[in-house]
Amino acid sequence: MLFKEVIGQETIKEHLIHEIREDKVAQSQLFHGKMGYGTLPLALAFIQYLFCENKAESDSCGKCSSCRKVSELQHPDLHFFFPVVQAITKSSSKHLQDWRDQIRESAYFDLYEWTQRIDGRERKPIISADESIEIIRKTTLKSFEGGHKVYVIWMAEEMNAICSNKLLKLLEEPPERSLFLLLCESIDGILPTILSRMQIVSIPRIQDGELTSYLVQKTMIDIETAQSCTSFSEGDYITATSQLKQQENADFLEIFKNLMRFGYKKDVNAMLDWADYTSQQSKEKQKLFVVYALHLIRQSNLINYTPGALVKLSQDEAYFLSNFAKFINGKNIQAFMQTMNDIYYHLERNANPRIVFTHLIFQVMRYIHM
Ligand SMILES: [Zn+2]
Fold first, then answer.
1. Could you say which of 28, 53, 224, 238 would form a disulfide bridge with 36 (CB–CB 3.0 to 4.6 Å)?
2. Are residues 53 and 197 in the same domain?
3. How far apart are CA 308 and CA 88, in angstroms?
4. Is 45 inside a domain boundary?
5. How far is the CA of 45 from the centre of ligand 1 (A)?
6. Residue 319 CA, ligand 1 centroid: distance in Å
7. 33 located within any domain
């Protein structure tokens, strides 16, 4: 990860770059801050800069072989440890591919999202004594590339007491050229004996202006929506994006309800207005809406034909579908799915959205009355 890919946090970036450029890297560091502030992305950018063979003043080159290995999380001298569900495995190494997949999707994630990824039953993951044995074992290996060896412990507050105690000596006297980066959200969860051995880097919230402009750039939403998400999020990117998603889904549910209501009532004027309104949304939003509509149609089918199945819906969605689902049945489900897929296909190929959505709502009218 490059420093410039990390949202905001200019002061911390300068501090970290300075540490490396002045060759004053403390060997045991604790990055403390919410994951939504960018604690992990900052650590990843810091590590990449440390390994980079062709550092610029303010960022790594992103191109040298070290940069590539770090950004792909494949550097042989870079090791990650994180909480895992003990009933599944006691070692991070079993979830390394999940870890890479997660970071490739987004390096902004929290323990909740991580737990959902590694365990469908969402049992609580921890970092256990077995992991500390693995960490100690890895520190005895020689550096593959002859340079630094870096050990990242993500969500270090999830280390249990045995694990923490086993690492004390290592953190106090790290082997030469090795760097321990512990990342945590809550400093209260870290043993005081560990804390006293670490240099603490406090990561502050992302500034509102930086978060807003990032959201506008990344998601192409308008500035007012971005500002309202930012104001709820208290400098936390994870909260801001989940807020954004909720708002979007609320909008989509409203559009979906109207699509079905007007089609059901055969109210032609309202149907044309609906097509008008929907075609004025951004292209990205139109496509997301179609995906959303497909999701609700599938869920309706599930409600009808698979009692007790795990239905993935918000409260408002569930309430609407409790009345609506009966209109989706064996006679029209295929037609609904096919039409939604066709609509998506045409939108991707820049068909006129007004024509596309007018076609859609008239088809829906037919299908509901099949
Ligand atoms: Zn480089």
1. 238
2. yes
3. 26
4. yes
5. 11
6. 53
7. yes
